[in-house]
UniProtKB/TrEMBL annotation:
Keywords: 4Fe-4S, Iron, Iron-sulfur, Metal-binding, Methyltransferase, rRNA processing, S-adenosyl-L-methionine, Transferase. This is 23S rRNA (Adenine(2503)-C(2))-methyltransferase RlmN. Its cofactor is [4Fe-4S] cluster. One of its GO terms (molecular function) is methyltransferase activity. GO terms for biological process: rRNA base methylation; tRNA methylation. It comes from Helicobacter pylori (Campylobacter pylori). Residues 109-254 form the Radical SAM core domain. PROSITE patterns: RADICAL_SAM.
Length: 254
């Protein structure tokens, strides 16, 4: 099975493609111009190089199957993997945004967008209040599948390429239980989609022993911890994970 081109960081493509500057050109086509066919990249690439890309890589590996819009403008997306037909969700949150013009001091009104992405199909944590756990755990999502959620949502809403998104890992799954792919996705969000790490939040239910590993990656992202209770008895009834990583254990790693 061909690898998805969205699974490669800029550094990895630079090591793989010859000459290495092809990697930056390819990233521009993928993340700045939203091209979904290698043939659409012929302005930069020779026919032989296009043929090589088509032979070695695939592009889109997920598709939107359903969109539900809320009265507040937010949208819930159902995606399907084109490889195994499993489904997963993401949400687009739209909020009012106000900025002050530095030259005129005028208040400029606009909109800001946050994409809540999934990192797993199903979840192993088993929180009592979470619907995801009812279906059990299926598999981890690849970095490419995480990235494509944001790309497809941005395209579906005709958002300008230069429009910055906020990314929150608060969809299906526990990010710290798929840490390698989540970290790779963060890097690609940054170097590909030009999303600052300061705009990215990773939310965890409290997998305490993996918090230092995440910190050691020096990604510069925000960390959110879902406590849901202030005492261990209540939290354990809601989140079985608390029996292994209680509140004190989690807070000691922050």
């Amino acid at each position: 099975m061909k690898a998805s081109i969205y699974d490669f960081t800029l550094k990895e493509l630079g090591q793989l493609l010859k000459p290495s500057f092809r990697a930056k050109q390819l990233y521009l086509w993928l993340y700045a111009k939203y091209k979904t066919s290698f043939k659409d990249m012929q302005n930069n690439f020779s026919k032989d190089f296009i043929a090589y890309l088509e032979q070695e890589f695939t592009l889109r590996t997920i598709e939107i199957t359903h969109v539900r819009k809320s009265v507040d403008g937010s949208k819930k997306y159902l995606f399907k993997s084109l490889r195994d037909n499993h489904t997963f969700e993401a949400v687009l949150l739209k909020m009012k945004d106000k900025k002050i013009d530095k030259e005129t001091n005028a208040i400029l009104e606009g909109e800001k967008y946050t994409v809540c992405v999934s990192c797993q199909i199903g979840c192993q944590v088993g929180c009592a209040f979470c619907f995801t756990q009812k279906g059990g755990f299926v598999r981890n999502l690849k970095a490419s599948e995480i990235i494509q959620q944001a790309l497809l949502i941005k395209e579906d809403n005709n958002l300008p390429i230069e429009k910055a998104l906020n990314i929150v890992f608060m969809g299906m799954g526990e990010p710290l239980n798929n840490l390698d792919e989540v970290c790779k996705a963060v890097e690609i969000f940054n170097t590909g989609m030009q999303i600052s790490p300061k705009r990215i939040t990773i939310s965890t239910s409290g997998v305490a022993d993996k918090i230092p590993i995440l910190a050691g990656k020096n990604l510069g992202v925000q960390l959110a911890i879902s406590l849901h209770a202030v005492d261990d008895k209540t939290r354990s009834s809601l989140m079985p994970l608390n029996k292994k990583y209680n509140i004190e254990c989690v807070l000691n790693e922050v």
